[in-house]
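Exercise 3.2. Students should predict the tertiary structure of the chain below and write it as structure tokens, then compare their answer with the key that follows.

Predict this chain's 3D structure.
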Amino acid sequence: MRAEAARARPRAAPARWAGRLALHAAVIGLCLLWLLPTLGLLVSSFRPPRLVATTGWWTALLPPHQFTLDNYREVLGAYNMGRSFVNSLAIAIPSTIIPVMVAAYAAYAFAWMRFPGRDLLFTLVVGSLVVPLQMTLIPVLRLLTALGLVGTFPAVWLAHTGYGLPLAVYLLRTFIGALPRDLIESASLDGASPLMVFFRLILPLTVPALASLVIFQFLWVWNDLLVALIFVGGRPAVAPMTVTVSNLVNSLGQNWQLLTAAAFVSMALPLLVFVALQQYIVRGILAGAVKG
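Answer key:
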């Protein structure tokens, strides 16, 4: 048996290496295919208008190299992109923190607290996932108009909180509900209040899930155009980058080297956030997979 296994091992090694080589080649090919549009956008954003209009972006990779920062200077200085970047941060950060924190405590309550109508309320929250966002825009807009919030940042904070809560509650309820019961009961027997259990036990144990949720909620809010356009409008004082870039498409249709610069300014921060925090996405997915 051992002799047969020893003879079979050398024959299996080349096949295993060939399989790994094919897998790596496929992964590298898919990554290059996914990155190609982003690379073209980045290269075009640094090219002079004359070259953008006459040659393809890939010719800029060959000498003589002719790159310029004029597109970024013009977009940031004359087309309100700098102010829009700050507005996007003012919208995205609270619209990420508020729903995630509310969803975390709601998930803890649905998982470990006993109160009348808990299952029915959880079913209603999760069931709201099937309601199309577009159907809620007019009722929510009327409500926020009556409150005098339309056109301000709190309007879009509340809207994103409402739209993000069902999925966040569902995901966190699944994760928190899988925590050991003995851990929660021991803390309660030691006299810990529900708030103390939440802040000292639940939050530290759910960091991978919370981090994943924060990343996805931030990317969703940052790239949102519809909700921001309806609830804060297109005024330069409050317009986020998605609204400003959309307006530039109409006003700079022929100067698309400026549009590429504006688009890359808009996508630079989400790319940075995703690359810097992608390890937490993997941890959150793996943690959920193990507990599920």
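Discussion points: The chain has a mean pLDDT of 84. Residues 2-45 form the longest helix (44 residues).
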